Amino acid sequence: MYSLAIIGLGPRGLNALECLFITLSRKRNTTIPVIALIESQEEIGTGSAWNTQQPNANAINISDRDLVGLTKRETIDRDELHIAAFPSFIDWVRDYKNHQIDEKIDTYFNRNVMGHYLHQRAKSIVEPLIKLGIVNLINARATGLILNNQIAEISFEDNKHPDIIAQHGLLTTGHLPEKWSVQDQEFNQHATDNEGIFYIHNPYTQQAYTLYKQLHSVAIKGMGLSMIDVVHLCIEQIEGEFKMEGSGPFLKFQYDTKVNLKLYPFSLDGLPVMPKPLGKTVDQQFNVSKPDRDRLKEKLHQLIDHSQFTKIEDILKPIVDVIETVYNRFNDDVESDDISSLITNWLMDKKTNSSLWLDTNLKTADYLKEACLMAYGARPFTLDYTIGQVWRHLQPELYPIFTHSNLSPEIQSQFIKVDEFTKRYSYGPPVKRVLQLIALSDCGILDFSIANNPTIIENNNGWALKKQSTEKKAHAMVNGVLASPNLKNINDSLINGMFNTNYLEPFHDELGVKTNEHGRVLTETESTLNLSILGRNAKGSVYGVDAILECFSPKIMAWADQYVKDYLMQ
C-alpha cells in the first residue's frame, strides 16, 4: 500500500511533492512515505497547459517581472536523501535564455518556455526519488477512486495500470473537461454531419494544431486570451511579419495578400480583453502604498470576522476606497461620491453611463487602440482601466484573505463573480499581442464587425454570423471560452464518480469542492476524509486558482505541513 497517491503531476502536484519533502527534511522525527505519482501526460511537471511541444503562438500572460514570485526550491537533505536546489524561474531564464528584466518593457514568454522550466524542475526531484524507491511514477489516467475503510482504491483508464491502494489521496488536477453547452453540442453535431465543416472545442489539442493550418474562414467564440492564441495559431499558415508603423506603437502586418484567411471573433458583449501596462514605468502608477494595503487588509479581516452582518457591498467598500485613491492621483477634479459609486457599480456589472469609462461604443479596433495608448502611458487612464490594474495589484492581498474565509458561500460566490468580471483587465494580455490584433484588423484578416452577440445560423457550408445588416460566413468554429470551475459541470470520470458517491461536496452551487484550510475534503457534515484537493477544482474554498504563481503558493505548504503531522510523525 502506498502512503500517498498524488493524482496530477502538473505544476501544483510538483509543488506539493516539493513541499512535502522540504517539510520532511526539516522534521527528522518523521517517516518517509511511499508515494504513487499519477500523471496521464507524457511529460511530468507541465500538465496540459504548459506542454513543451505546444506551438510558439501560445503565450503566457504573466510578465517576467511578476514571475519573480516563482521562487527556487531549496535543497532537500534527509539521511540518504539529497536533492539539489532548483533555481527560480527568473534565474533559470537568465542562465538558459540569457534574459534580463527590463524596467520599461515587460517580457512575456511563450508557454512552452515555462513548460521546459517546470519539466526540468520536476525531473530534478522525481528521478532521485524513483532511484531511492520512494516514489513510483504511473503514466496513466486515474478514472475511479473509492474509499474502503478510509483507504483510497484507485483505478485507471482502460486498465492501463493495475488498481492501487493508498492511505491518502491528493488531487492536484488542473483544467478538466466540462459538460458542453447546448450551443456547443449543436456546433459539433453540425460539423460531424457535414464534410468540410469543422468544430474545435478545445483549441489546445494536437488535433486542433493540425487543423488550424487548413482553415480559411474561422469564427472564434470568445474574446479573451484563448481567442488571441487561436488568431496566432491560424496566421501561422501565412508567411507574414509584424512591423512598426512610423514611430509606433502601432504595427502593420505585411503578408502575401493572395492569402485568403478571415477570422471572426465574437462574444455575448463583444468586448475584448485589455492590455496590461507596457512595463514597470507605466505600471507603477497603479501601485498601492503599503499603508493603504495594510489598512485594506485590516478592514477586510474585520468584515470577514463579522461576516453574518456582511453584504457584498460592504466587502467591496474598502477596495473601492483604495482604487479611488489611486485614480485621484490622475484626476483630482472629480467629485469623490461620484467616483466611489461609479467604481462600485462597475464592479457589480451595473451599467452606469459616464465619460470616465473608455467608450465601449467605439469600433473594436479603435477601442483597442485607445487601450494600447493607455498601456503605453501615452494617454490619460480611464476609470475602468484604472480599476482593472489596481485590482491586479491587490490580488496578492486578496487571495489569502478570501481563501477559507468566514464568508458565507453566497457572499464568497458573489465576490468571485466580481473577480471574474475584472479579469478582462486584470488578466489581460501583453500590449504587444493587442497591437498585433489591431494590425490584423487593419489589414482585413481579423474582422470584428459581428463581435457583439451575433445571430448564428447553420448552413451547408458552415455557419452564417449576422449582426444587423452585416453577415459573415465561416466553415470553422473554434470555442475559445474557458469555463470557470463548477463541480456539477465537470465532465471527468474520476471527479464525477467521487461526486456521485458523496465524497465531494460543492462549496456553492456554482463553484468547486468544499475543503478546509489544509486542503482536506469536507463532507456535508463538515467531517474530513482521507482525501485532499488543491487547486482550481476547489474554487470557492480557495480564491485565486488560475495563475501559475498560485500553483506555488503557501497553500501548498500548509497542506504538506498538516499531512506530515497527521500521517508521518513518529
TrEMBL record:
Lineage of the species this protein comes from: Bacteria, Pseudomonadati, Bacteroidota, Flavobacteriia, Flavobacteriales
Coiled-coil regions, chain positions: none
Classification via InterPro entries: HpyO/CreE_NAD-binding (IPR038732), L-asp_N-monooxygenase_NS-form (IPR052189)
Name of the protein this chain belongs to: FAD-dependent urate hydroxylase HpyO/Asp monooxygenase CreE-like FAD/NAD(P)-binding domain-containing protein
Pfam families attached to this UniProt entry: NAD_binding_9 (PF13454)
Domain FAD-dependent urate hydroxylase HpyO/Asp monooxygenase CreE-like FAD/NAD(P)-binding: 5-175
Organism in which the protein naturally occurs: Nonlabens arenilitoris
